[in-house]
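About this split. The held-out portion is used to measure sequence recovery: a designer receives only the structure tokens and must propose an amino acid at every position. Recovery is the fraction of positions where the proposal matches the reference. Here is one held-out target exactly as it appears in the evaluation file.
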């Protein structure tokens, strides 16, 4: 049995949650999970339909995106995952989808405004949209540069990947992450729902305001603050 069997199974289970949550269509997405001690991560193979995916198909790669174990080619987005793992040492799982509403905001090149308490339960800021890459980045090592497009945008905005675990890449689609793959999958579903709610809110009232700061802080801190009281 492979020394990475458990990691492959975690990656498999995380990937299979994406179609269950209606976050992917056909092969439009991928999920990965890292083992920091071994310096590797497990990721979905490229172009394999979810209904045909098996745990043994999951590919193991290092943080330079070199294949360590696996018979199939890893996801075409592997280099993006590798860049994020290498540069953000606290994350343990990454999800990339082309979920409908989040991707629509990415194609519109717009941040998703914080309009309601559902959003504020998870973030105190708008969900950022990084601008489309410059031509030289697109024509270069595209997937590798996508990782740095995300990192550069977080640095320019002064955002922490530990506090904001999701992003849109302009004209592309969303990426989410977390300390575990379960959290990254959860964040992907939350992002899609916040994107859907914001879109519908602006259809009902194009002048709808952003959530006021007192409600943002109340809803975030009751879940995540030092005196949090949400949950058991």
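Reference sequence for scoring:
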């Amino acid at each position: 049995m492979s020394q990475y069997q458990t990691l492959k199974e975690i990656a498999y289970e995380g990937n299979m949650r994406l179609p269950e949550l209606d976050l992917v269509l056909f092969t439009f997405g991928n999920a990965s999970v890292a083992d920091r001690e071994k310096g590797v991560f497990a990721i979905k193979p490229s172009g394999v339909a979810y209904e045909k995916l098996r745990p043994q198909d999951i590919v193991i790669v290092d943080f330079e995106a070199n294949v360590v174990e696996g018979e199939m080619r890893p996801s075409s987005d592997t280099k993006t995952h590798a860049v994020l793992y290498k540069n953000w040492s606290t994350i343990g799982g990454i999800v990339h989808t082309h979920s409908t509403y989040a991707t629509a905001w990415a194609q519109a090149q717009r941040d998703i405004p914080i309009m309601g308490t559902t959003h504020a339960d998870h973030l105190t800021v708008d969900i950022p949209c990084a601008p489309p890459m410059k031509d030289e980045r697109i024509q270069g090592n595209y997937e590798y540069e996508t990782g740095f497009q995300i990192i550069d945008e977080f640095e320019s905005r002064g955002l922490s990947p530990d506090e904001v675990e999701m992003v849109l890449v302009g004209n592309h689609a969303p990426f989410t992450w977390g300390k575990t793959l379960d959290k990254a999958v959860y964040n992907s579903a939350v992002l899609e729902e916040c994107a859907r709610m914001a879109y519908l809110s602006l259809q009902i009232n194009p002048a709808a305001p952003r959530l006021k700061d007192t409600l943002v802080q109340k809803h975030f801190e009751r879940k995540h603050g030092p005196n949090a009281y949400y949950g058991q």
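Annotator remark: Residues 85 and 91 are 7 Å apart (CA to CA).
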